[in-house]
Amino acid sequence: MSCLFDLDVGQKCQINDILIYDSLRRRLIDIGLTPKSVVECVEKSPLGDPKAFLIRGAVIALRKEICEKITVGAVI
User: What is the pLDDT of residues 34-68, one digit of tens each?
Assistant: First the structure.
């Protein structure tokens, strides 16, 4: 199973599950990061962490430790 951080810039995927169970999970869902939503990696920092993702029209930067808890399906 792959995680959100495995996406390269320009790749899209569908979210399978969010394995975070605190207030951060609620915040991610509020910004549109829900199971079955499509996410695109649009940029990464020069050192590789964080990466920026296009989520339902908004660009959100997420650190590796958060991305590793978000499972994704096949790259679209």
Answer: 999 999 999 999 998 999 999 999 999 999 999 99
How far is residue 53's CA from residue 10's CA, in Å, rounded to a whole number?
10
Q: Determine contact, residues 60/40, Cβ cutoff 8 Å.
A: no
Q: What is the CATH classification number for the domain harbouring 54?
A: 2.30.30.90
Specify which residues 59 forms β-bridges with: 54
**Residue span of the structural domain in which 69 resides:** 2-75
Give how many domains the chain has, as a whole number.
Answer: 1
Among 11, 31, 46, smallest CA distance to 66 is for: 31
Half-sphere exposure of 64 (CA within 13 A, CB side): 6
In contact, 4 and 72? CB cutoff 8 Å: yes
Query: Which residues lie across from 16 on neighbouring strands?
Result: none
